Amino acid sequence: MRAAGAAANAGRSPEPLAPELAALGDATRGAIVRLLLDAPDRALTVGRLTDALALRQPTVSHHLRVLHEAGLLDRTPRGREVWYALPEQVATRLEEWAAPVGDSAVSGALLGRIIDDLGTRFAGTFSRETVQRVVLESYDLLRERDGAGRALPSATAQFAAERLSAQQRSAGTARDERRREAGAPIDVLFVCVQNAGRSQLAAAIMRHLGGDRVRVRTAGSAPIDAIRPAVVTALDEIGVPLGGEFPKPLTDDVVRAADVVVTMGCGDACPVYPGRRYLDWAVDDPAGQPLEAVRRIRDDIDGRVRDLLSQLI
């Protein structure tokens, strides 16, 4: 089986694999796993599971069959009863996957819901398999950051949605040209190192000034866990909302979707695709700077954003 990337990190719990995650992406199956984990010898009969879940036996049997076919359960007939058990090598990983959302993980059931929700949102554009892959990749990338904590579920959903939207935007040059002629928003990507200062300042101001005329995304070549408080304060002082933004890693799909890519201090980390306009702004890094210095950086970026917007619109 193929391990997800974050499983290689020392001290972190193994990540769910795609087939198992698909099987666990249901609240009833998550409840079955929890009951088995808590049971003596980690095994129960269909009848006992039916009683514990207060469901009809055919319903429970269906979910057990899905888990068994995914390789998560052993099935053993004993006389007139059928026992389902968690193999020891699987039980260790399921301890984390089936747990409620905690400080370092998202349950399989919750990730399954995110996949279902985004599958509905992008129905007719992407298959469920594509949505699942993007959600798992996004979860893996975000979880590598320290301090993700309880914001990880919503962050995963938002990051995956942005990436799917970017892929939707970049699919087909001819279609993009038709949308541009119809007045579609211009896609602008701001990239810095930590995605916690310069790129967030620029993106917030561009969204505030550009409105529906622009679609703004941000990314970092080495993102940290949270946007710097001084950046939030500096934006609030001029009445610019940050919204639900957070640092995100740089991925190819958001670059491909961009009409304009603005980099600030990230060097050659940003991939180059034909047909995009690339700008590199020499802007001071607000990391570790006092609020007064951050205000000067904000005002510098504000002027650059206004100039760029006047060229684009």
TrEMBL record:
One matching Pfam family is HTH_20
Keywords, A to Z, come to: Arsenical resistance
- Family annotation (PROSITE patterns): HTH_ARSR_2
- InterPro entries documented for this protein: ArsR-like_HTH (IPR011991), HTH_ArsR_DNA-bd_dom (IPR001845), Phosphatase-like_N (IPR048716), Ptyr_pPase (IPR023485), Ptyr_pPase_sf (IPR036196), WH-like_DNA-bd_sf (IPR036388), WH_DNA-bd_sf (IPR036390)
| Residue span(s) of domain HTH arsR-type | 9-105
Which Gene3D superfamilies does the record cross-reference, listed alphabetically?
3.40.50.2300, Corynebacterium glutamicum thioredoxin-dependent arsenate reductase, N-terminal domain, Winged helix-like DNA-binding domain superfamily/Winged helix DNA-binding domain
Q: Which SUPFAM superfamilies does this entry report, sorted A to Z?
A: Phosphotyrosine protein phosphatases I, Winged helix' DNA-binding domain
One of the GO BP terms on file: response to arsenic-containing substance
* Molecular function via GO: DNA-binding transcription factor activity
> Cross-referenced NCBIfam families, in alphabetical order?
HTH_metalloreg
Under the heading PANTHER family, the entry gives: ARSENATE REDUCTASE (PTHR43428)
Name of the protein: ArsR family transcriptional regulator
Question: Can you name the source organism?
Answer: Microcella frigidaquae
Q: What does UniProt list as this organism's lineage? A: Bacteria, Bacillati, Actinomycetota, Actinomycetes, Micrococcales
